[in-house]
Amino acid sequence: MNADLHSHSTASDGALPPGDVVRRAAARGVEMLALTDHDQLDGLQEAREVAGETGTVLIDGVEISVTWRGVTLHVVGLGVDDGNPALRAGLEGVRSGRIERAREMGRSLERSGIPGSFEGALALARNPAMVSRTHFARYLAQCGRVAGTKDAFRHYLVPGRPGYVPHRWAQLADALCWIGDAGGRAVLAHPGRYALSASAMASLLAEFRGAGGSAIEVVTGSHSPDQYALFGALAIKHGLAASRGSDFHGPDEGAELGSLPALDPRLRPVWEGWEH
Ligand code: AMP
Ligand code: MN
Ligand code: MN
Ligand code: MN
After folding, report:
1. pLDDT, tens digit, for every residue of 78-134?
2. Domain 3-95+171-245 sits in which CATH superfamily?
3. How many whole angstroms separate alpha carbon 242 and alpha carbon 54?
4. Å from CA of 64 to ligand 2 middle
5. Average pLDDT over residues 33-46
């Protein structure tokens, strides 16, 4: 099964409209795709319409921004009902404050000699409420301040650098409740990206599972092969299923749809039983 359960469209910080993400996935042999825009369900209807034409199974998803012990985590919800009031209200709360944060990022960059980045990032965001660091990175690359979006993150948009503005996102337990209330399964996204010690990661996984989490992403665009092995072992140890998702944001921006290695057959896939 070529399952890709993590992808983004212009409904958040992806480069392609939802329908184009689905068409691209189908063309690349993806049999089951989850569209998982950040804190946002708006792309799902268009994605569903196109998936009906292509034969790719579409899983309705979302990627929720969470603050846990001061660290930003991402929790993917899979198979959520996008009309669920608890989920919708929760996401609205998470989204509020993004634009103010972006204004503050713009002011911070201006203080280090880069004017106009708030307006520049906003112009690149189809939905202004979802303006994100990715839009700032694209703006900084397009205006030639950095060689590419990777450098924009390295030099400007991460903790300790100008342009980084800390933000308080959802509580982990709340995000898991909204996903559960909406009938979905919660997956801890790209665990290899968090700056956590081994013991903090073990606490996180125990807390995540205890609060209703189902799976962790093992094979994902930002993991190395060593991390596939590490997080596969942690999934087994903590009794969690495993997921595979590219975290596709656009052509030439990180991993391609459906192109990553398969899960280790010893792992229990989160999509088991969803084929139809
Ligand atoms: P935000 O939700 O505004 O903090 O933006 C987070 C998004 O920035 C993530 O979903 C990624 O798409 C992107 N991102 C974060 N860190 C990096 C990085 N080091 N390199 C490239 N993209 C990144
Ligand atoms: Mn993103
Ligand atoms: Mn993420
Ligand atoms: Mn993502």
Report:
1. 999 999 999 999 999 999 999 999 999 999 999 999 999 999 999 999 999 999 999
2. Metal-dependent hydrolases (3.20.20.140)
3. 26
4. 11
5. 98
Pocket of ligand 1 (CB under 6 A): 13, 38, 65, 132-134, 149-150, 153, 249
Domain limits, the chain: 3-95+171-245, 98-156
Residue 50 is predicted with a pLDDT of 98
Phi-psi category of residue 190: left, alpha or beta, with phi > 0 → left and psi -120 to 50 → alpha: left
Q: Ligand 1 atom 14: the closest Cα is on which residue?
A: 134
Closest ligand by atom to 39 CA: 1
Predicted TM-score (pTM) of the model is 0.97
Helix or strand holding residue 138 (H, E)? helix 133-142
Nearest residue (CA) to ligand 1, atom 5: 133
Pull the structure tokens for residue 180.
């559960």
Q: Does domain 98-156 have CATH number 1.10.150.650?
A: yes
Looking at the predicted structure, is the pLDDT value of residue 276 above 80?
A: no
Q: Nearest C-alpha to atom 9 of ligand 1 is from which residue?
A: 134
Compute the distance between CA of residue 212 and CA of residue 251 in angstroms, rounded to an integer: 34
pLDDT given at position 16:
98
- Residue percentage of the chain with pLDDT more than 70: 100
| Contacts of 265 by beta carbon, 8 Å cutoff, 6+ apart | none
- What 3-state class would DSSP assign to 217? strand
